[in-house]
Amino acid sequence: MTEQIETLIIGGGQAGLALSYYLTQRGRDHVVLEQAAQAGNRWRNYCWDSFTWVTPNWTIRLPGAEYQGDDPDAFLTRAEIVAYFEQYVERFNLPVRYGVRAMAVEQESEGGGYVIETSGVTFEAANVVVATGLAHQPRLPSFAGELRGEIKQLHSTDYRNPETLRPGAVLVVGSAQSGCQIAEELYQSGRKVYLCVGSAVRMPRRYRSKDIFWWINKFGLSKRKIRLPSAKTKFPAPPHLSGKAGGHSLNLHQFAQDGVVLLGHLQGAQAGKIILAPDLKKNLAKADRPEAIITKLIDLYVLITRMQLPKERLPQLRDGYEAQEILELDLRSAGIMTVIWATGYTFDFSLLKVPVLDREGRPIHNRGVTNYPGLYFLGLPWQIRSVVLLGVGDDAAHIASEIARRTQKPLAGAK
Is this prediction's pTM over 0.90? Predict the structure, then answer.
């Protein structure tokens, strides 16, 4: 069975739904394909129980459903996030088809559109928007299989709470937001925690009485068009922050003070031992530096603009620098029975049978527009202005305008 549609959106996360909103408002014929069974899949099925959004409520700006509540500086819980997406689809009657996976996207031989094979029907579409983001598959190191069999290994997407883990110490590999938040929850629950520290940096949760995202927005950084120099630096890890318990800072030195064993980045594993790089101090310095820079910038801004805000001095902790550099660790001797890989994700755009990917498989585009008419990307990190829900509407509005410009003839019932 073949179905014809003007625009097919692959992916029903925030990007796909935001675009669907704009196309619906314009009266454009479209369908959103979501391979999950329900809305809010990422937060419903791939986040731990105590997960909260790291950006405050006022940054929730899906078009037509901008936050209007009475607690703008709080942080949505996992359940509240799922409910928000469910209500968004229902409120605007968005044409989302759940449980349908896109398998292949090919250009029609005449070049007039695209053929999309799915787990259900085949679509023919004038426009295709790939809105699947970059977090497609959990990333695990090749040497994960070298760890002994009795060690329970799981990716951060499979972690739920401390009670579901085996008794014993836990090794968390990765110190971006997920790794740090999970490590904090584990050691506060009474677990002995070892944490492999990577290149993620630290920001203060709040400074001079304002949330760090308030300052980012104030400086216009959330609206800045990001152009990073190379593919490897295109999508940096998010900074250490937490929205749990009203929101607070995450500081690796505080972790060390509280008993977490900090380690350099993990290089390999063999015979029940892990091999570590001697870069813990270097990574700690890298984590510390951005906080110092942005607080100086804020202080200067407050001075120049004469804002009436209280002065503040953040704790200058250095406990991590006093830690011994461990280059090899026997997991059995350390009592480690669980390894949590907070190592991010890989991406896979192999469904695209059109040459719009670079050598590393990353999309080639200009503000989401490819060189192939009618083929677009949406929801990539820092694509234009997106930071979670802060700015994703701008990206979606741009692509909606591009689609409308390409398809000049209005459809019946267009607004």
Answer: yes
